[in-house]
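Q: Give me a protein?
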Amino acid sequence: MKKEYPLNKNIKNHLLLGITLCLWVFVFLFFAEPFDIHKFTTTEKLIFLPVYGVIQGICYCLPIWYQNKFKNSIWRVKNELIFIVLMIVVGFGINFLFYKNIVAYNEPDTYEYYHYFKWIYAPALAIILPFIIIGRYVMGKFFENEIETDKKKIIIKGKGKYDLITLHMDELVFIHSSDNYVDVFFIEKNILKKKTLRETLSGLEKSFTFLMKTHRSFLINPNHFKQFKIENKKLYIDVGYGKIIPVSRNLQTSIKSKLPITTNK
């Protein structure tokens, strides 16, 4: 199976990278003066170099149409290479036309295609490409992490207008029911907090199947299991934060088979 390559599918982020590239190219050319830029006057640098920066930003953004075709499918290494090649080809064409028809217009001994690519465009790529490749890869990794985080977010809704909690799956510790209300215990800044919602325990059990029913009045997040405890011959589950949850006798065998057995009498 071919490995997926990290891709940030948010177009706004790529437009931002294009703008950043535009500014970076201008600043680099202005102060470093590579290639023949040292021959420009200050006025010429202020006229031509911003345009070169804009061209690089545009050349990065134009192939996004190709990238956008994969917004609902897998992006692989070969797709990344095609994107880079498209950007290089488009960039060479626009840069050469700008150089030939504006920067060096009516100038003697100007570069032709081959020499312009060899002496100007290829060295420029050696400087710009690492910035683009690394920038795209880092953005892709961040995007993957955001997706993974979003997948683990849950929304607990009650029947009341303002009965709503949005939290990470691992932040939910346990739920305790009382008639038609439930107390949701969750972690916020490493502190156990509680919010009461108008909802039934059975409704939440159906909605969040990763929760484990230990008692007719309790659902726990098994990720917070610490140990079993026995008090007065009754079995409890320690979920941390000073909370122990009762385990019904008829559920003990099932629960013990799903959780590591460590008791503390």
Remarks:
- The chain has a mean pLDDT of 91.
